Amino acid sequence: MKYGLLVDFGAPYCNYGDYAQSIAIEHLYESMEIPENEIIQISTKELATYDGEQLLLPYSYVLHFLVSPEDGRVALSDKITPVFLGASVEFAMLLNSYSLDNFFSPGKGWIEMFRKFAPIGCRDEFTYKFITRLGIPAYLQGCITNILPHRRDGIYKKVLLIDCPSEVLPYIPNELLANAEVLSNAEYIGNLSIQDNYIKIKQRYEYYRDNAALVVTTRFHVVTPCNAMGIPAIFTMRTFDKHSEDIRLDTLNPFIQLCSSENYSDINWYPQWQDFSELKTHITQLAIARIHEVYKRHTATSQIREFFQTRIDEYESVKNTELAYRTRLRDYIQKNYAIPVRGRFYIWGAIQLLCDGNNVVLANLVNENNPNLEFVGWIDTFKSGILANKPIQKPEGLFLAENEFVIVAAETAVPDALNRFNKMQINEKQFLIISNTMIEEADLKKVLAQKEE
């Protein structure tokens, strides 16, 4: 039996966070002294079709990579034996129409697979509770990226603003802004090979490790691995989020400062990194024990749970982001397209996870406020074809007639959309930015220039 490592996640738009978990598993293999020739790199597209030598695959990701898009059933090759280390049902917390109870109903294959490969290690408390309610043995592990090794002691100067909300910028002290750098932890792969893309992403995390004095980010798989590497980090919640419930937060490392738009003024911009090497040891030993199937679960899992308990206890007070999302949409429609107005609208960002078959949840939210508004299609720079029975068109072909408007749902599309709206002289009545607006390099330069005046 060989050891598997996921190094590609099957999408042209590359979220580095998925790969961060693979980087941690690769580090785990190094700790186990597994030779490179015993490790087979595969992609998520191969999970259902892999037909090579029997593969043991540590799985510490969201579970939707195992879903067949055709029927929602588990799609996993018999040649792959998964070891669930930090599984999560986070995908079902997005603003879509997935029902967990329906998704894991008999006949879908999930319950059978979980029972076969139990106990199931879970990344978050929510997933743990859900799986145990199904009568399946499970335990809480937390995110695998917590085990990444601490960097060397040194002098680090850069303040990295990684997919950071623009609203936080005025609160950052001048001396930190002087050393700030704006980055994103996601981008389109382009023509890179799978291997070259994986190497590039590893180098990005090495850049964080080797340069950052402080990281401020909305990305869970930036703040968690950076904190593991010894970088002081601040996690800023998105004001408008596609999560109806952000279950990742219930096992965010309690030492990481968590903030939202309601308490930006209270942020400690000079946090001291706190050692949690004992937790790293527990997670590492537990993961290795699971892979060897001779682990000591009763001791290690209780210690891990004890460590996360303060964050779990505090989780109920975390503000639900769906309310802000719905409120902004409602206010926009009531102001500009209230009943009995008739109109048409597009959604910028052909996002599969916002759909359940031909049911588009964002369109449904619009129609809850005014059923006379017709969803006519998608706008997307990088996609084409049909999604949820609606056409996808390029932004170059966009023309808005009277009582037509655009909802920008894709976070990465905001700068391009605003630029195009400006050139088309489209007024604010005809578009709504429902996603977050992140700090861009121009924003940073503008603020720095204003502070120098």
From TrEMBL:
InterPro entries: Polysacch_pyruvyl_Trfase
GO MF terms held by the record: transferase activity
The entry's keywords: Transferase
Start and end residues of each Polysaccharide pyruvyl transferase domain: 15-235
The UniProt record lists the keyword Transferase: yes
Annotated protein name in UniProt: Polysaccharide pyruvyl transferase
Source organism of the structure: Ruminiclostridium cellobioparum subsp. termitidis CT1112
